[in-house]
Amino acid sequence: MKRRALIVQGGWDGHEPVLVSEIFREILERNDFEVEVSDTLDAFLDAEKLKKLHLIIPVWTMGTIKSEQLNPVLEAVAGGTGLAGCHGGMCDSFREAVEWQFMTGGQWVAHPGNDGVRHTINIKRGSSPIVEGIEDFEVVTEQYYMHVDPAIEVLATTRFPIVDGPHAANGPVDVPVVWTKRWGKGRVFYSSLGHHADIVALKQPYTIMERGFLWAAEGKDIADGKAQAG
Fold first, then answer.
1. Fold for domain 3-223?
2. Alpha carbon distance 104, 125 (integer Å)
3. Domain map of the chain by residue range?
4. Which of 45, 60, 156, 173 is the Cys-Cys partner for 178 at CB 3.0 to 4.6 Å?
């Protein structure tokens, strides 16, 4: 039986949710997933359906979520359904929904210099198979400054400041870019790269997203007793 995934796309159009969702759909289908793509948060209403999924991928920025849409996701992930996403599509989805932020492990707060900032993604060696064999690399895009949960497992970081501003008075700080987290029995994966679809499609971000999807989805079979943790 194929693994099943749900992509929910929408919110602010500037993050190209439809184009990003298409890249994600292609990744999943190439890995033998059955994929549903929805353009409404009402796709989250069916709690029993969500609990049967291997993976939920939100691609939704700066929206508002109702409790009856949020609670089934919280419950499904806690029960073993994987959650994975990138950029504002997962960690700037619902600014007022602190339970969403608690589950995902972080929230965007700034991108000094806005788009077009050249910066380095520093891979944390040996942290996870998700980033194994990937060297540090440069990107030219938004550099996401995140508020993060201390419980996350950090797989990659980026160093601030590059662009001057009030934050620079604090000196150099390394902000997480890629991380994993547990939510009950579920696995949560996030990468802050992905302002536009062309960034998602770059070799390193693409590889990291693909591996993150597979890692998060694997947790469902482990939670259901159909596989053992590696």
1. Rossmann fold (3.40.50)
2. 23
3. 3-223
4. 156
Cα(45)–Cα(68) distance, integer angstroms: 6
CA angle 79, 217, 188 (to 5 degrees): 65
> Distance between CA atoms of 63 and 20, rounded to whole angstroms?
17
d(CA 199, CA 10): 18
> What percent of the chain is modeled with pLDDT above 70?
100
What is each CA distance from 104 to 101, 115, 132, 146, 212, in whole angstroms?
5, 24, 22, 12, 14
Model pTM score? 0.98
Q: What are phi and psi of 72, to 5 degrees?
A: -60, -35
154-203 confidence digits (pLDDT tens): 999 999 999 999 999 999 999 999 999 999 999 999 999 999 999 999 99
β-pairing verdict for 173-183 and 186-191 = antiparallel
As a dihedral over the C-alpha atoms of residue 189, residue 5, residue 101, residue 180, rounded to 10 degrees, the angle is -10
CB-based burial label for 193 (10 Å; 0-12, 13-18, 19+): buried
Are residues 106 and 148 in contact, defined by beta-carbon separation less than 8 angstroms?
yes
